[in-house]
C-alpha cells in the first residue's frame, strides 16, 4: 500500500513538471516573422519602434534568468548565468548598429512597393536572431523549475545564440563600412574597394555559429528542416568523398552530424573553405541520382512530352531582323565541337512536334526558353524538372531547357555560346518543338538567369530577333565579389556557402589565362565564307565584345587543327562533366537533330573523334549508331533507324527511343548496309551492355572512392582525409583571383544603349539571397533607362528555392508566382511595346 501511494505521488510530481514545461512552450507560439516579432512582446514602450520592444524584452528575460542562476554553484548553472549576461551585452552592442542600418535601408529599395536590399536583409537576420534568443530565454524562464529541465542542453543553446549575435554584430560593422563606400541608393561601391579591405575593417567573422545549433534560424520554419537535412547530407557526403572508400565508417560518422551540431558546423565550414570545386560538383549532382530522378515523375505535374534533343555541332542559317541571312557557327572554345542537349517538356502533344506523330492540338503561340541553375558547374534540366513540369502544365506552352557545358572543364564563354547557339537553332525549328514562335520568353534561375540575360545581349548585338520577355529568378548579374551587403549573406548560407560560391565564380569566370610569354594568344577566326557569319566563338576582336581566351588553357581549341591536341582521357573527362548528356531514362526520348552535310563541310571543321574508337568506321558511327553517355561519361551506342522512308524511320525511332529530324543520304548503298547491319548491331549492343555494367561499377567507386583535395605540399596532401585538421582561414583568403569586367559575363556592366533594348523583365528573388543586390541594382538600371521592369522579393526562402517547390508550401507558392509572372510576359498582345519588338 505504501509503495502504491509512493508511485502515485511520483506520478503527480512528474505531471506537474510536464504541465510547467508545456505551459512554457504554449507561450512560445507567437509569430516566426521578424517583421511581426513585436507581437510576441508584452512590454511595448510609447514612441519606441516595435522591434526595440523585442530587443528590450530579450534583455529583461535574460536579466530574469541571470538573476535566477547566479546563486547556482554548479558548472552548468554558472555557465547559464554567464551566457545570459553575455547575451545582454551583445544586445546592447548590436542595437545601435542595427538601428542605424534599419533607418537608412529603405533608401536602397527598388521602389516603395518592392522593399528589399542587402541592408534590409541583414536587419531581418539580426531581428530573427533576437527573436530566436527571446524564445530560448522565455523557454528557460518557464521550464527552469521543472524536474526534466536540462541545464546542459540549454547551456549550449544560450552560448550558441550569444556567439551568433556577436558574429552578426561584426557583420554590422562591415555594413557600416559599405555605407561609407557608396552614396545613398547604391548597393555597390562607386570607387574600387577590395574585399580584403572590407574584412580588414573589423574582426574575422565566426562562421561556425551559423552552421551549428542555430542553422537556418533566419529562414521560414518549413525550410529549416530541409536546410538542416542538406547540411547533414553535405557533411556526411564529405566523409564518403574523402574516406578512401570506407563507406561504413563514413555512414557512422555521418550519423553523428545529426546529433552533434558543433561537429557538423566545424565540418561544413572546413568543407566550404578547403574542399575543391570537384567536391561541390559531386555533391550538387546528388540531385540527379537515380532516386531523385524519379521524384518529379511521381510528385510533379504529368507531362505528355519529356525528351532530350541532341543538336549536332553544325552551322545554322538564321535571318536577322533586317531580313538578311547569317550563319551561326557552333561553339568551339575550350572543348571543341560537341553535340548540345536540350530538353523539350510539354504538357500536350502538338501538331508537328518531333517524334510525337499526328496530333489534333495545334502548335502553341508561345515557347519558354529556359536555362537551369547550378553555379555554372553542376546540375541540369533533369534536376530542375521538379518545377519545370508544373510550369509546362500551368503555362500550356512547350519549354526548351538547355543543358549547357559546365565549368571548370568548360568555363566562360562556352556556356553562353551554347545557349546562344541553342536559341538560333530554336528560331529555325519552331514546328518541331510544337510552337508557332509568336511569343518567346526567356527564363532562368541562378546561373541560368545570368546566361539568358547575357544571351539577350548577344542577340541584340547580332541583330537577331529578341525575346518578347525575360524572367529572372535570384540572378547573379555581376560575376565578381564586389563588396555589397547581400554578398555577405553567403557567410551564413546553408545552400550556397561562401567557399562554394567563390569556387564556382573562379571556375567559370577566372580560369588560368597565362600562356607563353605571359600574354594570351588570339583565337584564329574561322574564314573561308563568302556570306556574313555571326560566330558564336568569342575573341577580343569580336564585334560583340567577348573576351579572348588563351589557347594555352587546358582543353581549349584554337582552330580546326587543334583537336588532335586533346587526349582521349581529356575527352572522357569533359564528357563526364557534360551537363545533360549522362541523363537517359526510360521516360525520356533522345532525338538526334541532324543538319545538311554540305553546310558542315563548308566550315572546314571536323568534329573531334575519340581515338579509342578510331577503328569504328565513319559510316557506322555517323549513319548506323547514335551515341549517348552514361552518368560517368562513357559513350553508349544507340541504334539509329535505318535509312528507309521517313515514316518508317519515325516508327523505328520511337521503338528504339531515338530518331532524326532530317534524314541524311547514306555514304554506301543499301545492299552493303543490309549485309553488315546485323553483325555490327550485335557488336555495338554488346559494347553497350559492357558500358552499362561499367557505369554501375564506376558510380559506386565515384561515390565512395578517394578524391583528394589538391595541395601544393605533401603535408597538406596528407591532411586531406581529415578536413577538421585544417585551420579555419579568414574569408579573404578566397579572393585570390580577378574577374574581367565583361558585360557578357556580368550583364550589369552592359552599355545603356543595349540595356534600353531589353524586352520587359520580371525578377523574382528572396531577401536572404547573396545575389539580391545584383537583382535590385540591375532592375534600377533598367528602370532608369525607361524599360518595363518589375521585381519582387520573397521572405524567408533560400537561394534556389524553386528546387524545393515539392517540399515546402512557401517554396511552392513562390513557384506559382513565377508562373503568374511568366504568363504576363507570354501575353503581350496588349503591351504597346510588343509591336515594335523586332524593329529595335
Automatic annotation (TrEMBL):
Q: Which residues form the Alpha/beta hydrolase fold-3 domain?
A: 369-510, 741-802
Disordered: region residues: 511-613, 630-672
A single MF term (Gene Ontology): triacylglycerol lipase activity
Annotated active site residues, numbered on this chain, are 446
Q: Which domain of life is it from?
A: Eukaryota
Q: Residue ranges under compositional bias (Polar residues)? A: 529-542, 588-604
Name this protein carries in UniProt: Hormone-sensitive lipase
- Which organism is the protein's source? Chrysodeixis includens (Soybean looper)
The record lists the lineage as: Eukaryota, Metazoa, Ecdysozoa, Arthropoda, Hexapoda
